[in-house]
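yo

u said u wanted the structure for the complex thing, so here. seqs first:
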Amino acid sequence: MAYLGRGLDKISNIEVLDAITFTNSAGPYNITKSSTAFVPASANALVISIDGVVQSPSSYTLSVATITFDSSMASTSTMNFMYQIGSGVITTPSDGSVGTAQLATDAVTNVKVADDAIGLDELSATGTASSSTYLRGDNSWASIAADTNDKVSVSADDTTPGYLNGKLVAGTNITLTEGSGGGDETLTAAFSGNLNTSVLNAGTLDTARLGSGTASASTFLRGDQSWAAPSSDFVLLSSTTPSAANTISIDGHFTSDYDVYKIYAIGMSGSGMSNTRLSYKMNVSGSSVTGYAFSTANQSGTTFANWADNTNAVYMDAGYVHDSSGSTSQGNLEMLIFLPLSTDKTTIITQMTAWDNGTDFGRYFGSCADKTARAISGITLSAGAFGTGDIEADKILVYGMKNS
Amino acid sequence: MKKIIIKPDGIEEVELTAEEVSQAETNDTEFQLKLDQEEQEKITKDNNKASGKQKLKDLGLNDDEIKALMGVE
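structre next:
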């Protein structure tokens, strides 16, 4: 017996949707059914009552599972109900029966798409997808542009002798030398010729590049581009600025390398004493000794006279120094010592200039001889005949004169 | 008081021993005596010079003659 009753297209079905709580805005508000997103079939399929008034479908718009009203919905307003009125009997569509028209715009969300289901054909990118193209941000398939910054490109499977060398161009004064011709070639760049100094913006050249020989603290670069010890026979052994002291001993500088020594005592003065004679003694094994013969003459103006002498002296007087540290009247001494290490009687020549106590200019010439044949190790200087005052010197220089 | 020793490898400062300080004080005293003695000898020499010159003048020599003869002014 045939079906009797209302047509199937007259049978309605109602989806009771969750009432929306307004928040003083027009929306969009989520449309849900039992707290699950619900996509209405259309605006006309919805029946909405707010504060007891059924809303016209033209007063809102739908977008997937959201609704936006034409005007702001006050939070004090109450949605009484929201239904979707469907029609016909709800059945499962037959396979392949749902067409594009049955799907709402943007209805397919990403979770509705199976993993790994999107193929190249589903992409709308322009261009041609291939093993040499890549999908760019502008939705187009494109090849990677060649890097114009590449300076050198080397074949990965180079087996051709001279391949590397043939790909590089050597600059001025640069020589490229190929090694291991063929597979796994190496290429060495070497500089030759004169270095353009303009490339030396900073830093220093290795001393080995400056000359032959060995660069050290005791060698100097000669004009023939070789590192060599100073050829001078006059060698500075010591340069010091001692502080004021009762005595200044210059000791331990005498060696077999030299026969003659010079000592310069520059800017000397005495202090705290009744006289400011510069006196000196010889040292033996580091300690000052006595027993000398000496004489010192003084040239003051046009007068040249004996100033001090003693044939059995315990010290020598070389001249006067001024009794004022830092004065422009300080004394300066040059001392020439002959053969101090020989077991002979060492002799010394001195000359000295000074303003005697800052008033009269004096130039002193003196000499002395050790009365004992013995090696001496140094000289001890004192102001004031080795009394209690101090002697000062701005600088003391010790030189040796090479004996060969 | 201290003494400075300048060696090839640097400067060394050493305080004087009591004996060395005492010796320095003795040297001061002895040198002052020496200066006094030299000063006295100079005075004696100047006096002799003056008296010798006067005696030559008393013999009738003038200053140029005395200078030429003795080198004494």
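The longest strand of chain B covers residues 2-7. The interface with chain A takes residues 1-8, 11, 13, 16, 21, 23-25, 27-28, 30-32, 34-35 of chain B (CB under 8 Å).
cya
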